[in-house]
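Q: How do we represent a protein-ligand complex in a form that can be generated token by token?
A: Start from the inputs.
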Amino acid sequence: LAGVELAREAEVEFLRGLKLASQHRSTTVSSVDFAGVHVTFEMCCPDAARSLLGHLSHIPRSGTAGLTAEVICAACAESLRLTIPWVWSDGQYSGEKLSSHVDPHINAVVIYERETLVTTIVLGGLAPDDFDRRDVARSILSIILEPLGLFQLHAATLGDQENCVLLANKSGSGKTSLTVAGVREGLSTVGDDFLAVNARDSLPFVYSLFSTARLHTSSYAWTGAVGQTLDVDMKYQFDLNNVRSSAVVVSQLVRAIVVPSIGDRTSLHECSWREVMQALMPSSIRVSKYPKDLIYVVERLFAGLPSFQLVVGSDVGMALQHVKKLAGVEESGT
Ligand SMILES: [Zn+2]
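Then emit the structure tokens for the protein with zinc ion bound:
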């Protein structure tokens, strides 16, 4: 009983601290739409805001009600003396006014306030600059979006404004290289690495989260364009809309699934749903707090689609022809 009392007191104490902290800092507020869900970001400082929001696709507001996400970097949490009362030592806490857990991927304390639907993410060891890392952005988005039924898939797409193929395979399979090559050839995408699916959809739609892409300088799609930054995985990070203006679209309908790999000569052959799941799932569920729900949504949306293995050889143009045909992209008479 003493433990419960202590936890309640800590809860009240922490909320009071949080309110005090928010009165004393200059928040940077920005609104983003994800798959029709409206999220208002209240960032602790301009540096963190610029770094995190710089990853996100610039999707116009659709006016759907959503939630507020307060993100506080470690530097700000420290300067605000915002200390977390660690009475819930197992990292999980569910109280009257708030519930909380620790996210192991980014060492963050996540607090859901029940009445206001405000999600507060206090980062344990990340300075504003660390928000430049897309894996950090991805973890923050998981925390915010999964309770709303939006899941992140480790996949890319290529197609036109409406239809696409889903490109799914583990890192190093040439997904991003093919996506960048396709974008350069005039194709559209919702992203090169991570995109969103909505548990409420009945058709296989995918939604854009990030407009940034990451490539090794050894990739055939690499051309050494300017204005790019090297990230922690020694890949260059850049915006796909800088490869081709308006290349990133809000959403696409998936017409087929393609599992790309790198080989000598380009070839295409059908593959099983099992092979698709092996390509798609391990890395998709890694950051998810609800992996079973994610698998269920993916099976329901995509299991009926035609699926193929695409070996991408030195004749990349032929691989892109396969992609266009499977996505139902009309040729422009050339
Ligand atoms: Zn900050």
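The chain has a mean pLDDT of 83. The chain has nine helices and 18 strands.
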